[in-house]
């Protein structure tokens, strides 16, 4: 029993479960017009706007009375108020069955709406039985009474078809009146009311209770509930009409399918309360808003037909969402809305324990008004635009504004918290800081912002820092692996398109393989600077979730043989989201580790992240040969050789792990507040000569890795058509990724610059071997040289990254000798993170120029030798530049470095790495 956990008051379990059942009945009555309204609409010939007004009127009443009912609950006890509300709304519901005109029904609907006011009564009543650390779960259980909407949708259609809508009203009225009587006699008086009765105390006046509503933060909190609850109620009312209008379903089927939305949006509110108790409501609200933005965006896109004027005439195709995908997305939306509803109400009894009724009533009123305004707006938008999905477009705008406003407020308060030395980390939902009552308690955060971070302090690192850094490293690495997989997925897809009927030219296929490199590299330029602005945790969550867009897009596009090249080109560009994520990932992780472990950490993050290419090239060829998702995944395509292919799986297979990655990032990662800086602060790197030198060198290592990953499968299929190269394509990225992950320690020991110099010489030798093998028509020799090139490129990826922090600490030690050592370290780390992100952006263009170089060379000369000789010259230039700038006698780490001797007090310089001890 719930009452056995924590320090719940006597009778807590009985009060909770009876209130939950009563609220379920109330909610079933409150949403009765979602079903009987359809019968009334047909009987009276109502327009969509009139129908929306009728279904929304009970919601209006139930919302407006919540503040008053909440205050009365605090004054005279929730038990009596709850029972009275049920009896009065039951009488109004029964009288509704005798209404025969539209105005009479509107008047009856006002009385029915009293049932919705029971929510603020129940919140005030139930919260008084539980301690703060258990209120999220308790109120989540109570709030699950929202499932009453599903009860109405499931049962009312059968009663209405058999007996008429009037019978539904009479049966529902009898149920709520009986429940009201049971509630009055079955529940105990709340503890506060008992205390007042025994002590003869007078309840606080309504005017005094309402003073708390002057806090602007409470109204902002109400906005969040406007979406998570108001949007839920609006969709609960609107979905039967939507399903009938869009998919042509009958009323019974529409009512049952609408429950797929209502049930999870109700039951999972309990889970949302538990998550809020355990992890904090702020994280839950962020997850709710981010996922809701994605879901409402997908749902708001209307069925569209496209006509493209092609060379051989118009090319037409259309896009639309089927019933099954619609229900899946609605289920996901309902799930996260339920979490958000619990998260909002988690805070009210914690921050305002003396005014739960007033604050809870206001928040509930604004949310309930959303349930009134939104159905009316849905109907008006449909009448005005004639577009069914306009309702979801409106929800998309609301949740986007809510997310941006909440994040802006939190960022503002986090900056204030960071500026105050006595505040170790920002409180839960910091826009409420200082606005709660004296009894308010804030939950400790397991993830989120960290104000104090000292990785170079041995005690701090061993006792606190290492475990936090490792957790952030492995979550970031998992997300980065998925990013690389989605980024490079076209390297496999393009090789299969001709076999299922697409007639793209060789040049077009190379464009599809190369274009993700353009967009990924370009996005890296911006992503490199976003972690210090937004925070690594939020940005990792958003950037990982963005991978769902190309994953879904590819899955749908390849199923339609009429999909034009232009759409594939757009999807290839969107895959660049995955490429951009690398810059922000390495920039974020670089802040967590001390100099002595930075090379290894970045090597693990980048190396295993790079492994995503190999994982993709291994998994996708297998996944496309089987119907993994059944009917949800679409029909198979017949290849030229008669085999069945599910090429859509190349996109769909990444959807579940990407969703998991976004959740892990949000609930498991941290932000280092001392790493926050503006773009202007980071822009100083553009004046650093070493920044541009490292761009050239990293292009030689990572540009090779990612370019060969993108171009090798198609190149091998063209120059060695007799070999099934896709069976071996994954080995190259695998070797390169493992070499990168395992060689970070080597660069930490002997110096990244020395390792990089020899890497470039071996790369040049590998190119000579590739040219010889092509001329000799030896696939074994060619593939062996490719594996060698991948291996040394992986080693070079780790060594060049290790060079950056060593270079910047050397620069700051010389240029800012008068600056305290810790401050020099902080500035050097900030610029190092920005440079690491920026050079990764420039190097990523290798994913474009290497496949396009092969394509140009083959189309111009009939051979790939021209491109390979150009790559050979480039590697020699990288080796020469490394020698002159860093490893030679006059290089930074040479015997006579160009920057001179280290400043006094800087420590002894390690000539192998450039670092100081």
Plain-language structure description:
By secondary structure, this protein is mostly helical. Helix content is 73%, strand content 3%. The chain is built from 37 helices and six strands. It has a two-stranded antiparallel ribbon. Strands 3-6 form a two-stranded parallel ribbon. The chain has a two-stranded antiparallel sheet with strand order 4-5. The chain is globular. The N terminus and C terminus are likely disordered.
Distance between the termini: 59 Å
How big is the Rg? 32 Å
Shape verdict: globular
Count up the helices: 37
Average pLDDT: 76
Strand content: under 5%
Q: Helices and strands: which structural class?
A: mainly alpha
Main location: membrane
InterPro entries: MFS, MFS_dom, MFS_trans_sf, NO3_transporter
Protein name: MFS transporter
Subcellular location: Membrane
Write the layout of secondary structure elements.
Layout (H helix, E strand, L loop, with lengths): L11 H19 L2 H12 L3 H17 L1 H11 L1 H19 L5 H11 L5 H10 L4 H12 L4 H16 L1 H22 L4 H9 L6 H5 L5 H32 L3 H29 L1 H20 L3 E7 L2 E7 L3 H29 L4 H30 L4 H30 L28 E3 L7 H30 L2 H7 L9 H22 L3 H4 L1 H10 L2 H10 L7 H10 L1 H15 L4 H29 L13 E2 L5 E2 L3 H4 L2 H14 L1 E3 L6 H4 L6 H31 L11 H20 L1 H25 L2 H37 L5 H23 L2 H16 L3 H23 L30
Parallel strand pairs: 3-6
Antiparallel strand pairs: 1-2, 4-5
Helix pairs in contact: 1-7, 1-8, 1-9, 1-10, 2-3, 2-9, 2-10, 2-13, 3-6, 3-13, 3-17, 4-5, 4-7, 4-17, 5-6, 5-7, 5-10, 7-8, 7-17, 8-14, 8-16, 9-10, 9-14, 13-14, 13-16, 13-17, 13-18, 14-15, 14-16, 15-16, 15-18, 19-26, 19-27, 19-29, 20-21, 20-31, 21-25, 21-26, 21-31, 21-35, ...
